[in-house]
Amino acid sequence: xxxVAIVTDSASDLPPDVAAPAxxxxxxxxxxxxxxxxxxxxxxxxxxxxxxxxAPDAPFPxxxxxxxxxxxxxxxxxxxxxxEAVVCVNVSGSLSGTLKxxxxxxxxxxxxxxxxxxxxxxxxxxxxxxxxxxxxxxxxVSGAEIARVLxxxxxxxxxxxxxxxxxxxxxxxxxxxxxxxxxxxxSIKPIITVIDGVVENADRVRSRAKARERVLELLTSKPLxxxxxxxxxxxDVEEFRERFLERSGLDASRVQVMLVGPSxxxxxxxxxxxxxxxxxH
Length: 281
Hints:
The chain is of the alpha/beta class and 281 residues long. Helices cover 38% and strands 26% of the residues. The protein folds into 2 domains: 4-154, Rossmann fold; 156-279, Hypothetical Protein Tm841, Chain: A,domain 3, CATH 3.30.1180.10.
């Protein structure tokens, strides 16, 4: 293994078949449907989550942060297997207590080199930074230098997603009921972003087609280095991908397509499409 272990959490939306080959360990948050609790990527796959999420009369899912003990076990295992350092990049500390859990776990191993990085974003914004960390670790870059690069590059990450409704953000406590009601009343298709770690409104348009067009404009406003297209069970994601490739000028090998997972999906709901992009540094 690399001498620097890379760790993230499941709010990164990195699926096991992408994370594992890259050497990235994903610590799961907790997702609950009523009394039933699951660990994304362990006891609940992304496909299983969306089947439950969209089932008739399904209870609304809730999410909870990972515990310090979850990170502690992963950190200790990495050192037991020969790692000299750990770099752990997490979902924004303003959106989840998961970052704090990682920091507490790091504090339990004071004699070990552990760098906990607040991505100040969510979903594949976190995942993309973890992937960059893994690429650097594979090249033999030190843990301290990887953490420094991530701190510098997180300002180059942007996220824009067109939602079908504000209802799920309201239920998840991310926006007020009044804001959601106004959006529904006006048939608004909101476009969200994450600014300095907090979910913000980027724009509001009146139709699904206009929302997708506006997202493409926002995503391709600057020269791009790489991108991860995001969707929540969206049938037209391939059409969106083709349009994105035309507009962005990126090679297809630099563009991933990711189904949003159980840790972020409850806040977005089905029918969303968007992307995380990294601007050229």
